[in-house]
Amino acid sequence: MSPIAVAIRHNYSNTGDGTHPHHKILHTAFYWGTEAEIMFPVWPGKSPGMYALALVFVFTLAVLVEGLSHCTVVKPGSNRVAGGFFQTGIFAVRAGLAYMVMLAVMSYNAGVFLVAVAGHAVGFAVFRSFGFRRGSDS
């Protein structure tokens, strides 16, 4: 085991007698596998089905981030103050979702990284390239 991996070993249950039977190693480089912890301890667990669900969740979050990044829902001529508050709320939600995607990628699981990038790409394609293009806007 590398010195870095040993240095970042975390104890999830202390028996109280000085022994630590359940050590978990946090990854410091990308790895493949369905046994990952994404955003929360013990989630998605060791089940490949739950891992697949976690990948779908991260993909959906990334698509939503792109959707909120490229949508303008305040119409010209509307109340500027109300529109400003609404846009601020949308920005706050987008920032929160973007941080959740970032935390998922920080699990260093290669599958999570790939679905996050794919989610951003699909979201960009749908919301910027195809879906919300107006006339000559790009």
Automatic annotation (TrEMBL):
Q: Name one GO molecular function term.
A: copper ion transmembrane transporter activity
The UniProt entry lists membrane topology as: Multi-pass membrane protein
Q: Keyword check for Transmembrane, yes or no.
A: yes
Q: Which UniProt keywords apply?
A: Copper, Copper transport, Ion transport, Membrane, Transmembrane, Transmembrane helix, Transport
Q: Which Pfam families match?
A: Ctr
Residue stretches spanning the membrane: 49-69, 81-102, 108-127
Tagged with keyword Kinase: no
Can you supply one Gene Ontology CC term for this chain's record? plasma membrane
Q: Where in the cell is it found?
A: Membrane
Q: Which family does it belong to?
A: Belongs to the copper transporter (Ctr) (TC 1.A.56) family. SLC31A subfamily.
- The name of this protein is Copper transport protein
- What organism is recorded for this protein? Escallonia rubra
Q: What is the lineage of its organism?
A: Eukaryota, Viridiplantae, Streptophyta, Embryophyta, Tracheophyta
